[in-house]
Amino acid sequence: MVAEFIVILVIAYLLGSIPFGLIISKLKKGVDVREYGSGKTGATNVMRITGPKLGVLTLVLDVIKAAGAVMLATVIIDGNSGILTIGGVSVYWQHIAQVVAGLAAVIGHNWPIFAKFKGGKGVTAYFGTLFAIYPPVGIFGAQIVAIAALRSRHMSLGSILGSVAALCLMIPLAILYNFPLIYLAYGLVVVALIVYQHQDNIKRLKQGTERQMW
Hints:
mainly alpha, globular
C-alpha cells in the first residue's frame, strides 16, 4: 500500500512538472516566458507573451497532464492493492489516491523540477484534476472562469472566482449528496494555494492596475 502511494506521488509530481508553457514558447517562438510578464509558465502568461494559440495549447496540455495524473493514480491503486477490492474500502482508498495525485500534480505544476521550480499558479492543473475526480464540479468552475474572465477581461479574476466557485459547489454536494469529504478538503487546500499564488494580482485588481487580457 505504501509503495503504491509513493509511486503515485512521484509520478503525479513529475507529470505536473512538465512545463508545457515553457516548452511550447521556446520551440515555437524561441522565448523563455519565465523572463517576461508574470514570470510564470502557465497558460495566461504564455498567451500574453506568445499569443492566444500557444496559450490555449498550453492550457489544454496542462489540463491533460493533471487529469492524467489522477486517472493514472486510480489505475495504480485498483491494479496493485488487493485490499482495495473489498466493498467500500475500494472507493475510500481510490479517493485518497486521487487526492494525493491531484495535490502532487498541482505542486509539480507550480514548482516544476524540470523548470528550476518556476511554474504556474495552479489553476489549469487544479481544473484538470477536478475533471478527472468529479467532472461536474470542474465543468461548473471552468464556466465561471470563462464568464468572469470574458466580462472583466482579467484572467486572474476569472481564475480566482472559478476556483472558489468550484469549491463552493462542493459544500452542498457534500451535505446533500454524500460528496466525498476528502474531495472537499482537497478543494480547500488547493483553492487556498491558488489565492495565495494570486496575491499580487489581487492587490493590482484592488488598485485597478491589473493588466487586462485584451
